[in-house]
Design goal:
Blueprint (H helix, E strand, L loop, with lengths): L21 E5 L4 H12 L3 E8 L16 H14 L3 E5 L1 H17 L6 H20 L4 E3 L4 E6 L2 E6 L16 H6 E2 L8 H10 L21 H8 L7 E5 L4 E5 L23 E6 L4 E5 L5 E12 L11 E6 L7 E7 L5 E10 L6 E5 L6 E7 L4
Parallel strand pairs: 1-2, 1-4, 2-3, 4-7, 8-11
Antiparallel strand pairs: 5-6, 8-9, 10-11, 12-15, 12-17, 13-14, 13-16, 14-15, 16-17
Helix pairs in contact: 1-2, 1-6, 3-4
Length: 381
């Protein structure tokens, strides 16, 4: 592809040689972003690697399975040294705490099930880091996310990754059109994670066999409650476990230890029917339980909507779309009914169980791989 004057576009979409195209690569220290940086460096781009220190990594040095810890900063630096491009570590601890951790704690205490990785992309990586990239006179910023950016008739579009098993669209729905014009996702077209590791081996990167991160970076071993107790002392106040019909079934040691849809570990054995957490009443310090059918939800109120479709969000009374209400499920058919520019009601054609406030509801075009945006579920029961 070339512009009207005949100048060919490089692989990042700019009408100039790679050597004159500066790209900031957000490097977590994992194999994905390392491959992006190495590949662009080998193609001759003016690569600048940036790693964010998001929290005090002293305590995290020995911790495996989470990004942005001290060992990851070291791994990112080694990749930069091998491939011969500059690498910077930026201290974003205060920004990360204000923009991500505090809200995570507050929303969890309010009985929600937050997804802090989305907020981190939205408020830190694609906001402050993106501005830093602009300050460095970069033409664009590249990340190791598995998602695709395609040029459409009305500008850049966000599309699912070629590998559905690696697709990260659920975590990137809040990317704005302006951010999308500046971002690049070089791995989105790859058929599998194995292909990424093969590239890492080809470039001789030390992280080629490094395991994927699993946990939220500031939540060791997935133990949310222990982190909340440290951030908000006194949060684990005891209260009652109450059946949806009003019966008091037992005591609990803090609402923060429970999530919507939970069945195991309720501590109320000996009952004839299996019970699930169907609601968390923080004000009354109650964990409300009931039969599985009480978890089923068809109507989902959504707010803080980021719209990536063509035309104004409110120009149609309703749209047939597909939605994800959790990252691990495929998109399901739904009707989207806008209420305002930033609020809507989503009606699921098939009821879903365990929908919780604090989770994301992501919109998809039912006839293509395009992501149409999404919002936050604010009352899932």
């Amino acid at each position: 592809m070339a512009l009207d004057n005949g100048t060919p576009l490089n692989s990042l979409g700019f009408a100039k040689p790679p050597s004159e195209t500066r790209v900031v690569v957000a490097m977590s220290g994992g194999v994905d972003s390392s491959v992006v940086a190495a590949q662009l460096a080998e193609e001759g781009y003016d690569v600048v690697g940036v790693t964010l220190q998001l929290y005090d990594h002293g305590a995290a040095l020995a911790k495996k399975g989470a990004c942005c810890a001290g060992i990851d900063i070291h791994d990112a630096r080694r990749v930069a040294e091998k491939m011969g491009f500059p690498h910077y570590v930026l201290d974003y601890e205060n920004i990360f705490k204000d923009a991500v951790i505090d809200e995570f704690a507050d929303s969890y205490l309010a009985g929600a099930t937050p997804v802090p990785c989305i907020r981190c992309n939205e408020r830190v990586k694609f906001k402050d880091l993106l501005e830093t990239a602009r300050d460095l006179d970069a033409d664009c910023m590249a990340t190791g996310h598995y998602i695709q950016r395609k040029d459409g008739a009305n500008g850049p579009e966000l599309h699912c990754a070629a590998d559905a098993n690696r697709d990260q669209s659920y975590f990137l729905f809040s990317t704005t059109p302006e951010q999308l014009s500046y971002l690049r996702f070089p791995l989105g077209h790859l058929p599998s994670k194995d292909a990424t590791r093969e590239l890492a081996a080809k470039y001789g990167l030390s992280v080629a066999d490094k395991p994927d991160s699993q946990d939220i970076c500031f939540v060791p071993n997935g133990n949310y409650a222990s982190v909340i107790e440290k951030l908000r002392p006194g949060a684990a106040e005891p209260g009652q476990i109450v059946h949806a019909d009003g019966r008091v079934l037992g005591e609990h040691n803090g609402v923060i230890h429970y999530t919507i849809g939970q069945r195991r570990g309720l501590g109320i054995g000996g009952l004839s029917e299996p019970l699930y957490v169907v609601k968390l009443d923080v004000d009354k310090k109650q964990v409300i339980v009931g039969p599985k059918e009480l978890l089923a939800t068809r109507k989902v109120p959504v707010r803080e909507i980021n719209w990536l479709g063509d035309g104004p969000f409110t120009d149609m009374a309703e749209r047939e779309i597909a939605v994800k209400v959790r990252s691990t499920r495929p998109p399901a058919p739904a009707i989207l009914r806008p209420i305002s520019e930033t609020e809507a009601e989503v009606e699921l054609l098939t009821a879903e169980e365990g929908i919780s406030p604090g989770q994301a509801c992501v919109f998809y075009d039912p006839d293509s791989t395009r992501i149409l945006g999404g919002g936050w579920i604010w009352r899932g029961y």
